[in-house]
Amino acid sequence: MIEYIAKRMIQIIPVFLIVSFLIVSLTRMVPGDPVRNILGEEATEEQYRELSEKFGLDKPIVVQYVVYVKNLLRGDMGRTYFRNLPVSKEIGDRFPNTFRIAVIAAAVSTAVGIGLGVTAALHRGKALDSLIMVLSLIAVSTPIFFLCIILMVVFGVELKWLPVMGLATWKHYILPVVSLSVQSVATISRTMRSSMLDVMGEDYIRTAWACGIPRHVVIYKNAVRNAMIPVVTVIGFQFGSLLTGAAITESVFSINGMGSYMVSGVMSRDYPVVQGTILLFALIFVAVNLITDLCYGLFDPRITYN
Q1: Does position 99 have pLDDT exceeding 80, yes or no?
Q2: Which of 32, 175, 209, 285 is the most buried (most CB within 10 A)?
Q3: pTM: predicted TM-score of the whole model, two decimal places
């Protein structure tokens, strides 16, 4: 396994280089000029040229990319254009909020999604199965921003049960976590149901029934465990999606996190902010995929990492 992890870590290097180059290139293609945003339309050409040289924006994109990578290797993610603050410190202050919300949402969606998926599979073709599938379809089809607004209006404004801004207490986490979890619950439950139905039709499950093994042992020890392989893949992907989906949730609920920080960077054309946040999200995706691959062995002993 150590050799497998080492190989995967080496594979991160080209991924890092490709992703970082795409980020630097694409941010420059976005309409808008950060220098003009800072100076205003009335600035002179000399002022514009001086600030462009200060930010290094007067150089070709390839040169800007090489300088950016060199700084990254030294642990320097650059400084924000507008407030002249270190991007790494800004991200360090905001990332814990985003990470906590994503982890809680992932735990909730995994537990609820697997439970609903197993329940739907065990009641295949019945009213409960149909109800769960209809609700999951509605959940998948509901945009996150719309759900955020509905929850905010109903539970925050009308009923006044829950706070709708910030993360001061545990109650502040409820609405953002629910908003992020709904689509993940639907996706995981549908995948779990499909995987469970496939496993329940296998010969070894029918043999277990015929041998008189207790129902709960057959379902939860044999069927659920073997049905988890495709579900683990979906859970890993959903965790990465929860981190990036926090951009909408954090903006709606005024949370000082990575998502809202990235959105503000895009709106103001603050290239170091956009580059730093997207690159971190990309590396987290790679790390989650590695952890997901390692988790396969927990559910299927036949999987090796030689």
Answers
A1: yes
A2: 175
A3: 0.81
Please report which confidence band the pLDDT of residue 233 belongs to, taking 50, 70 and 90 as the band edges.
confident
pLDDT band at 198 (very low <50, low <70, confident <90, very high): confident
Question: For residue 88, which of 261, 296, 294 has the smallest C-alpha distance?
Answer: 261
> Poorest-confidence range of 128-137, 189-198, 258-267?
258-267
303 three-state secondary structure: coil
DSSP state of 124: T
A 10 A CB-CB count for 166 gives 12
Tokens of 221: 């020890």
Burial of 27 (0-12, 13-18, 19+ CB in 10 A): buried
Tokens of 90: 């800004």
DSSP calls for 31-90: SS-HHHHHH-TT--HHHHHHHHHHHTTTS-HHHHHHHHHHHHHTT---B-TTT--BHHHH
Nearest Cα to Cα of residue 145 among 180, 172, 177? 180
For 235, the token pair is: 């859970």
- Tell me which of 153 and 30 has the higher pLDDT: 153
Strand runs labelled E in 214-288: none
Please report the pLDDT score of residue 131 as a whole number: 92
* Phi-psi label, residue 11: left if phi above 0, alpha if psi -120 to 50, beta otherwise: alpha
Q: What are phi and psi of 86, to 5 degrees?
A: -65, 130
Structure token digits, residue 149: 């607004």
Q: To which H or E segment does residue 186 belong? A: helix 174-200
